[in-house]
Amino acid sequence: MEKKNTIEEKAKVAKVDKIFRLRTGIVIDHIPAFKSFEVVELLGLDHPGEGNAVMAIGVNLKSKKHTAKDVIKVENMRICKEEINKISMIAPRATVSMIRDHKIKDKIRVKIPDVVEGLLKCPNHNCVTNFEPVKTKFHHNSGQMKCHFCEKSFNLTEMKLL
């Protein structure tokens, strides 16, 4: 019988662990396939500036619950409620896990908040928010986003981020 644990195979495993096994950081899982780059941009991770976050992005991965998903892992990052609310606009079924000492310390299921302010553009071209410097505001109800100003309702899929 041939020995399977060659030095090359062990090196590959070590490289994968270095990239994908976090000591401290966050994991954003269950992002719709091919949407991870929008989440990266939304969180400002495409311009990390100081600190240069180490990040791994898995795109179009197999999923047990859905046909495919994306995953983002960011080393040494913390995330606040406002950022989690932003993620919900792109990935309403995502989960965010906080990792400390290689263990999940907290896991949050992303949820679209009841009121969303300053994140979405109203698709109604006649809405005052498209003409005046007014902070947008939407009320979420069963997958519909109702504009506070023009009172029109839209599917989240129709919405664009500011």
Query: In whole angstroms, how far apart are the ends?
Result: 60 Å
- Please tell me what the overall shape is: elongated
Instruction: Please work out how many helical segments DSSP would assign.
Output: 3
Strand order of the largest sheet: 2-3-1-4-5
Uncertain runs with pLDDT below 50, 5 residues or more? 10-18
Our Rg estimate from Cα atoms comes to 19 Å
Strand element count: 11
* Helix residue percentage: 10-25%
Task: Please write the string of helix (H) and strand (E) elements.
Answer: HEHEEHEEEEEEEE
Mean pLDDT: 85
Describe the sheet with the most strands. Answer: 5 strands, antiparallel
Class based on secondary structure composition and strand pairing? alpha+beta
Q: Estimate what percentage of residues fall within beta strands.
A: 35-45%
In short:
The chain has 162 residues and is an alpha+beta fold. The protein is 19% helix and 35% strand. The N and C termini lie far apart (60 Å).
